[in-house]
Amino acid sequence: MQIEFLGGAGEVGRSAILINDSLLLDYGIKTENPPQYPIGDIDPDAVVVSHGHLDHAGAVPALLSGSARPPVHWTPPTRALALRLAEDTLKLHGQTPQCPFTETDVRRLTQVSETHGYEESFEAAGHEVTFFNAGHIPGSAHVLVDDGETRLLYTGDFHTGGQRLVPETTARPEADMVITESTYSDVEHSDRAQLEAGFVESVRTTIWQGGTVVVPVFAIGRAQELLLICEANDIDCYLDGMATEITRTLKQYPDYVRDPDALRRATSNARFVTEKDGQRARLTEKNTVILTTAGMLGGGPVVSYIPRIRSNPTNKIALTGYQVEGTPGRELVETGSAEFDGRVMPVSAQVEQYDFSAHADRDGLREFLSEYRETPILVNHGDACEQFADRLAAAGYEASAPDLGERMQVGD
Ligand SMILES: [Zn+2]
Hints:
Layout: E1 2-7, E2 16-19, E3 23-25, E4 46-48, H1 54-57, E5 72-74, H2 76-93, H3 103-112, E6 113-115, E7 122-124, E8 127-133, E9 141-146, E10 151-154, E11 177-180, H4 192-208, E12 213-216, H5 222-232, E13 237-240, H6 242-251, H7 260-269, E14 270-272, H8 277-283, E15 289-292, H9 302-309, E16 316-319, H10 328-335, E17 337-340, E18 343-346, E19 350-353, H11 362-369, E20 377-379, H12 385-394, E21 399-400, E22 407-409
Parallel strand pairs: 3-4, 4-5, 5-6, 10-11, 11-20, 12-15, 12-16, 13-14, 13-15, 16-19, 20-21
Antiparallel strand pairs: 1-2, 1-22, 2-3, 7-8, 8-9, 9-10, 17-18
Helix pairs in contact: 2-3, 5-7
The structure holds zinc ion.
Residues 51, 53, 136, 157 line the site of zinc ion.
């Protein structure tokens, strides 16, 4: 088997791996300014997408911009999320050279799409492929690829700890080679129940004190997880931004969430913001909780909420995930002020950060990989892939971290 790393090697973003020059695993976007895409000029016979996040599925429509029509294989939620992301990318960058695809390409994508459930093998470019629940977001999959000689397990993004939204990964299919993500290879997540209890207590305190809580969330996964947490703890909340549409989308795939009834209850517990700016201004005067995109404050309605609540120290901004360097969210955490609408604004409201991660941490990665002690491991999708590969090697694994553009032969 031949494996070529076209993106996501030593970095998070633009994941893309080409197998035997014919089967492409993921084709993502790295959201920098300008956005970055996988390298190489490729013409795959088939495409398999591990899950519906921008860094794995974002550039898939671009594969249909020429005359080729490779089938695209994914789970039903991944298909829905990828199409939604494509629309959003068109809205943000359409008609600019930064956008690698057009509306026509997105329409073509719906024609070549083939959906598969977990543990139902299918054929793609002459390979036998099987998805297994990866416990990251609804529809997320580990991808097992068998070319007749070598079985490759591509983990995609995964979580070994349970979330309210999706159950954790449990499948450990036999493989001759593993490509693992390593996003949080040097982080230990705090206990999920404790984290949740801390968040709930903090939100309640602000509400009792008469403040407004703005909870920035990522649209896919994190927003729904926070809705479920609010519902389970009797916290009334509003939901705003792209998170509202994604929540409606995910409700249509009850087989891919842990507890569809809980998601239904959580969705009716939340009020969806529809009236735009008038309603937003009124909400910030209220003693309530607002879940809104974007999770790192880089756009979306959160940008109009924060300037309105920022000067009252009773109010609170409760970040719900990692804040990437260079984002307004990171700036706010580090300096107590951030730039919104081109103006740097000091924030007197309280700023807190909760790591409701959807990825395995150091222990989770080791727990997962302990099932593959005898299997060569390639580390990708992380900022410290090399270091993690070295630690694995020191622990007796055969592990390495491929470089961007690296091409390797495994087995025959
Ligand atoms: Zn992901």
